[in-house]
User: Fold these one by one.
Assistant:
Number 1:
Amino acid sequence: MPSLCFVAGDPSGDAHAARLFEALRAREPSLTAAGLGGPAMQRAGVSLLDDLTKAAAIGPFDAARHLGRLLRAKRLLEEHLSRQRPDLVVLVDFGDFNLPVIAPLAKRHRLPVLYYISPQVWAWGRWRLASIRRHVDRMVVFFPFEEAFYRREGIPVTWVGHPLADEARPTLRREEALERFGLNEWRMTVGLLPGSRRDEVRRHLPLMLASARRIQWRMPGVQFLLPKAPTVPREAVAPLVSRSGIEVRLAEGSVHDALQLMDAALIASGTATLDAACCGVPMVVVYRASWPTYAAARAVLRIPRIALVNVVAGRAVVPELLQHRATPARAAATLIELLRDEPRCERMKEDLRAVRETLGPPGAVERAAGAVMEMLRLQKAESSRQ
């Protein structure tokens, strides 16, 4: 009975790992898995050694606050690898832990390693390529430029496309979504998407609410919609909204149900920018990190832009306001300028449609499952020869 070991460390990776395991079980019902991850993996049938999503952080400096939990998780995983010897270790994103800690650990136990969802080494960590060559047997990536990057570096890679090609669809009709979220269909709607982690919400939501106050003062008819990520508890959001003094509708459920209603949005840099691109929402991207993390990123960053839509497009499709430039005055002014410039909005929507096309055809998770099954077959064949 083939077995896998998964390691995912944040809510997004947890969800991606869960969907991958579900696709694998559909192909091979006898497949079993254990590892480090979160509640989505556990619901999918992975035996959870520890919940790493509670230690999700932005960058290595913020992760240092969770060092005790990470060390405990490493010990639990090492015991599992020694005792159970899974057929394949699947690492899912979480590069600050998986690359320097878990991949070498798996190789010390002489286990094959597949890396699903590449860390952004092409942006900030080219010095880690030597470690990837030594410790990772295959990269499975979402974007065509990642495939080209790893091929140039001589690293085995499979491009499967992005799961958003399947997932970025509303579950409600527009009229149903308007009624559910209590919005007026005749008023302009601005979205506020502060991120999927508590730390991101803490850094970005006050900025976005202060920006919303300025937007409302200059454009009184605008209404605001805040899709709450399922990984963020309501108590981390509602008090901040209540104290802001403006009316903001909280949307729970599918983020795409909310995105279809937005005329424009303020969005924290991350996968949410791709969600918005798939729904054709013009946006202004903001991002704040701790100052040590920001300083370290500035020192190693090798690309001119960080918003995924801009990285995928290879040019500045949407404006980015980062760190000290991410102020309420600047964010509000940039969004208002966008809302009032209809031709610019239309050009941005065209560019976002092009970004959507680069995500590949539907079926990314199935193709990723195929890559995993192929590695399992190769491992079985190699074992039989020995």
Note: The CA atoms of residues 18 and 30 lie 16 Å apart.
Number 2:
Amino acid sequence: MDEIGISQKTTILVVDDEPKIREALSMNLELEGFDVACAANGNEALRKLTEEMPDLIILDVMMPEMDGFETLKKIREVSSIPVILLTVRREETDKVRGLEIGADDYVTKPFSPNELVMRVKALLRRSRMPSTLPKTKIMVDENLEIDFSRRSVMVRGERVHLRPTEFRLLYHLVSNAGRVLTHEAILHRVWGHEYRDEDHYVWLYVTYLRKKIEKDPKNPQYILGERGIGYRFKEPIEP
């Protein structure tokens, strides 16, 4: 794991009600050098979150009593830890629901163990990426101020909270203000090359950002879409 800068002490919490899946995932992750903790249900997962202090959670959606969506909601009340959802469902609405609740990624069963490990490494790499943001405060206009050094966004005089992925997306859009970034370019810069086929991530997180910074998200003034190509941020931006 040295090539991606992940410590040997990295702990992954695997949450699934099927023992065979927990065992298989644990074996593959341990072979990659991760420490692994397991939970068989949502309540146990919430307890292990406090006890084990994991660096990332792999969370099954289809569990009895408290399903993965409800478990994720409770996790997000206390932690911003990266979460990958596992499910047998393929409907786009389920993916959107998971991401809206606060999941960072989504893998559909059946899946390749190598694919899941790749996603785990990519997500850890993003979450631990050292800050390279300029120490710059930008006044977009009288309604929008961005301070990259403090990771602060002020909208009409009030600070808004952005999740890490939302802030990375905003950073790349603002850094290329006036230029169109293709869907592929955004995926590569914000999520990584492993996500080149996940176009819905771009649309979804642009939607999130617009809801938080635009006065009228349906008629955006900052994040402008170029149909079939990508997005660009308004210009000029004054430092």
Note: The chain is about 40% helix and 20% strand.
Number 3:
Amino acid sequence: MFALDDSFARELVGLHQPWRAEPVADPSLVILNEELASELGLDVEGLRSPAGDSILAGNDAPAGVTTVAQAYSGQLFGGYSPRLGDGRALLLGEIVDDEGSRLDLHLKGSGRTPFARGGDGRAALGPMLREYVIGEAMHALGIRTTRALAVAATGETILREVDGRVTDVPGAVLARVASSHLRVGTFQFASATGDRELHGRLTGYAIARHTPDAAGADNPALALFDHVVDVQASLVARWMAVGFIHGVMNTDNTTISGETIDYGPCAFMDAYDPTTVFSSIDHGGRYAYGNQPAIITWNLARLAEAMLPLFDDDTDAAVESASGVLQTFPERFQSAWSAAMRAKLGLDAGVAGGDPSSSDPSNGDDVIGDLLALMGEQRVDYTMCLRALSSVVRGDAEPARSLFTEPEAFDAWAARWLALVGEDRSAIADRMDRVNPIYIPRNHIVEEVLTAASWGDHDALDDFLDAVTHPFEQRPGRERYAQPAPDAVDYRTFCGT
């Protein structure tokens, strides 16, 4: 049906445990990402067959590979856990394209492994469908992400707490594709073993998969670290630009590839507020929307600590080298965030004749900051407001103006902003519409469609998926998908375990 390689299993002994999935009673495909399957050159019809169901649910492993549970550490809300690993997941292997590039195929919810920390090792259908929906929405928004290939039902029920009571819910397995599943926590685990040779093998493997040019650098390990700092700065900037809150930015959820991973308690912000938290377990707001740049910097510092012996045998020199790279993060993040926000406000072609990459206030960053402050003061929906700005450029201010409780303040801001926008207003507005989505996975709608799908009603899920995977295209009859949650509803997200 498809061939896989297992380079991770072969080359990184010491960072995994060979393991097989626990068989399930009656595997059946719930949803298949045909677009992704086709991109990967996989046999779509084969995946839809009983044999495909069996592989995607973990009952059968592809021939010729060793399936493994990966080992990694993690900083969970700041507290170090030395041995996490894939407690309910397995790496099936790697899909290798014609150019030799590798993509991991990974199962989630495939049963307990030696890294399990309690629980049954299974996953509920709702959270697995959630990861499918959010991942595909992020992909459509142009944000680097792991992607779901499929969700397969197990034919079994599992016990989970729902609305404060323990009940039976349908079980499922997620098949996920990623550039790799190497994490900051992987390097922390390798460092904690004290095995310099293993640590070096991991670094060489990461370089080969994610930044091959670093192999020729004077200091390949430092070049890898520089790469991770860069891709994470870009990733978190893109999150912030669309109002995304990851919700559980532990070091085991920070990838070396710069892809978003683990869509548990994530959500998209409604009214603009940097303190926004949806996660039920984030009581102190550690991973609030506005804290994400600081948290990823902290995570990258933990990566630097884990890699210090690879940078230089002299500890002081290693710290100096790592610090020099890490200190570039604020500038890299600000540059990526400013570029994204200038595009959203139609300022990306140059502002008032200036260089759009300039840090001078005339490039519009002050106008961006003032808009966000105004949105925060008046509790304005982030996504709706940014989308409505293109109407202002076209000459109709009312769609944006009506979102503000004190529209005169918006009028004053808009006059300043429009003075910076170029003269080709129609083309600028069209460009803005290509980067400001109408549809995002609003948390209340996500919960609604996943609840229905968990019990067999897939129509709403299919319709919602079609909207969020075409986020910039306005569709008749889908107006409520663009609306924020009712103010009276206090939504919370959960880790899904």
Note: Confidence is low (pLDDT under 50) at residues 351-362.
